[in-house]
Amino acid sequence: MAPNAMGKNFIDHLCFLMHRPHFFKNKAIVVSTTGGVFANKTVAYMEGTLLSIGFNRCYKLPLTTSSWNDYKVSDKDRCKIKKEALRFCKDIASGKLHAPKIGILIPYNLFRGMGLGYIKGTEYETEDGNHWTDEIRSKSAYDIAIKVPICKKLIGHFFYLIGKKASTLTTVTYKK
After folding, report:
1. What CA–CA distance (Å, rounded) separates 106 from 51?
2. Measured distance CA(131)–CA(77) in Å, rounded
3. Are 112 and 128 in contact (CB under 8 A)?
4. What would you report as the CA-atom Rg of the chain, rounded to the nearest whole angstrom?
5. C-alpha torsion angle, residues 61, 64, 69, 74 (rounded to 10)
6. Which of 134, 91, 92, 132 shows the shortest CA–CA distance to 115?
7. Please, what sign has the CA dihedral across residues 142, 144, 148, 153?
8. Is the dihedral of CA 172, 117, 132, 98 positive or negative?
9. Which residue has better confidence, 69 or 156?
10. Averaged pLDDT for residues 55-69
């Protein structure tokens, strides 16, 4: 009902990117095939992970079969594969970068604000603090390559202020 053990392990090794996202110009397509159920949940999990580490857009292709060791692609699945692959290819070919959804902007800006409590020279300096003090990154509600509507920028800055305040109220208490 989720990525397999190797896939989950890979995600766990990249979880630091949720605090310091990259890949803003990249797009992904997640394919899950299963002989049973829950391909939808697996691709939704992967989509959430990829978007939280910065991917600009994520397409989902869940495929489920009740066949064991003798799967033949049905016409319905073939149509589904073609449709999603075309959507993905058209988006890449367009070169368009999509504005992030509010659900992505909120944690991005919370981390942006909270990272300021862990900047170089503080007792508990972390890479998060170093990442968010970049001159351009520290002033923008999202990556500067992505056009963000003013209403979303305002929401982002609001959550940045919450994160900034939270960084003064909480402390990471480990040392390297």
Report:
1. 12
2. 43
3. no
4. 19
5. -80
6. 132
7. positive
8. positive
9. 156
10. 88
**Would you state the pLDDT for residue 117?**
87
Give residue-wise pLDDT tens across range 24-36: 999 999 999 887 7
- CA gap 120, 87 in Å, rounded: 44
The pair of three-digit structure tokens given for residue 152, joined into one six-digit string: 């979303």
Q: Which residue has the tokens 């910065």?
A: 54
Tokens of 56: 């600009």
CA distances in angstroms from 2 to 11, 49, 140, listed in the order given: 12, 12, 34
34 backbone φψ class: left, alpha, beta (φ>0; ψ -120 to 50): beta
Q: Determine the 3-state secondary structure of 27 from DSSP.
A: strand
Q: How is residue 118 written in tokens? A: 């862990």
